[in-house]
């Protein structure tokens, strides 16, 4: 049986149904919206097989759902672990050094067309990276800063949360279009999921 991207149950860290509150302290809101966007990306992949995840569905763009998953794993790692937490770790995915952090690596990484092993591994790497990023900032203050090598000035953890929410929002729009072009599915969950 071929691997397919699993259905994502939208939940809080405590296992409750995810419903981002409209009134809460800032940290709860930031974490809630970031979790919502992380899970939204994965819902766009739910039920698709490896070849579908690696398909360029909006030519001439080279975007793929799997490329977006890989890209967001890299962006998570860059901002939360490498930049904010200062962990001396490298990239997750080798690919062109053009600032696309994983997006362009799908075709090259899957040239042998062994989509199943790569898609499952890349998807698991994303999930593991999210967990590692959550651990890296647990208990850290939103006002804590680091010297950004890309911005050339101090940046706060609050800013990182906000930039991650906007990054996911942007790419979740791409994922909406890619999913619809792949199998016609729209909304949070495809038919039959």
Describe the overall structure.
This protein has helices at 26-45, 50-53, 65-84, 105-109, 115-137, 157-183, and strands spanning 145-147, 154-156. 51% of the residues lie in helices and 3% in strands. It contains six helices and two strands, in the order H-H-H-H-H-E-E-H. The mean pLDDT is 84. It starts with 25 loop residues before the first helix and ends in a 10-residue tail after the last helix. It has 193 residues and is mainly alpha-helical. Helix 1 (26-45) packs parallel to helix 6. The chain has one domain (26-183): dinb family like domain (Four Helix Bundle (Hemerythrin (Met), subunit A), Up-down Bundle), CATH 1.20.120. The longest helix has 27 residues, at 157-183. It has a two-stranded antiparallel sheet with strand order 1-2.
Summarize the structure.
By secondary structure, the chain is mostly helical. It has six helices and two strands, in the order αααααββα.
Count of individual domains? 1
CATH top level label = Mainly Alpha
Which architecture does the CATH hierarchy give at level 2?
Up-down Bundle
**CATH fold type:** Four Helix Bundle (Hemerythrin (Met), subunit A)
Reported for the largest beta sheet, the result is: 2 strands, antiparallel
Q: What does the average pLDDT come to?
A: 84
What string, H for helix and E for strand, traces the elements in order?
A: HHHHHEEH
Strands side by side in the biggest sheet: 1-2
User: Which stretches are poorly predicted, pLDDT < 50 over at least 5 residues?
Assistant: none
Helicity level: 40-55%
Overall number of strands? 2
Oligomer: single chain
Sum up the overall morphology in one term. Answer: globular
What amount of the residues lies in strands? under 5%
Specify Rg, calculated over alpha carbons. Answer: 17 Å
Question: How does the helix and strand content classify structurally?
Answer: mainly alpha
Within CATH, the superfamily carries the name dinb family like domain
